[in-house]
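Quiz preparation item.
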């Protein structure tokens, strides 16, 4: 893919995140695409990727994702993001806590034939669980 095509594809995703459009976000992924996610593990195939976006928006209905700092090298890119949301529905057997969280992370993309072939999401999942009250941090020791 050209640099311009990557910029266009990734740039369009910001609006889809704002609308919490699971189907639209999934369409950017290859039919046999792969997503590696701290929340969902490794997801294979566009249909499963779409289901994971839908599950994310169900559990965190007010999700706000801000994308910034796209860096492109060949058919790969890196993008910084921040994610702010409230845990409003059951997720993975955890009842909703009603607590808000903010995480910062990195999205690593590999592109092929005009789609995202692989996406790897890197962020502090343990920190997210602490913020929503699922885990408690250990007290600091002197």
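Solution:
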């Amino acid at each position: 893919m050209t640099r311009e095509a990557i910029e266009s594809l990734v740039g369009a995703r910001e609006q889809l995140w704002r609308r919490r459009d699971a189907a639209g976000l999934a369409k950017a992924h290859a039919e046999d695409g792969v997503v590696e996610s701290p929340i969902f593990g490794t997801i294979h195939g566009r249909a499963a990727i779409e289901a994971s976006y839908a599950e994310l928006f169900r559990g965190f209905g007010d999700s706000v994702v801000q994308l910034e700092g796209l860096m492109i090298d060949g058919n790969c890119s890196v993008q910084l993001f921040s994610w702010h949301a409230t845990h409003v529905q059951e997720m993975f057997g955890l009842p909703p806590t009603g607590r808000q969280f903010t995480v910062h992370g990195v999205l690593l993309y590999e592109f092929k034939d005009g789609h995202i072939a692989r996406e790897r999401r890197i962020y502090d999942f343990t920190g997210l669980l602490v913020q929503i009250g699922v885990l408690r941090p250990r007290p600091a020791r002197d």
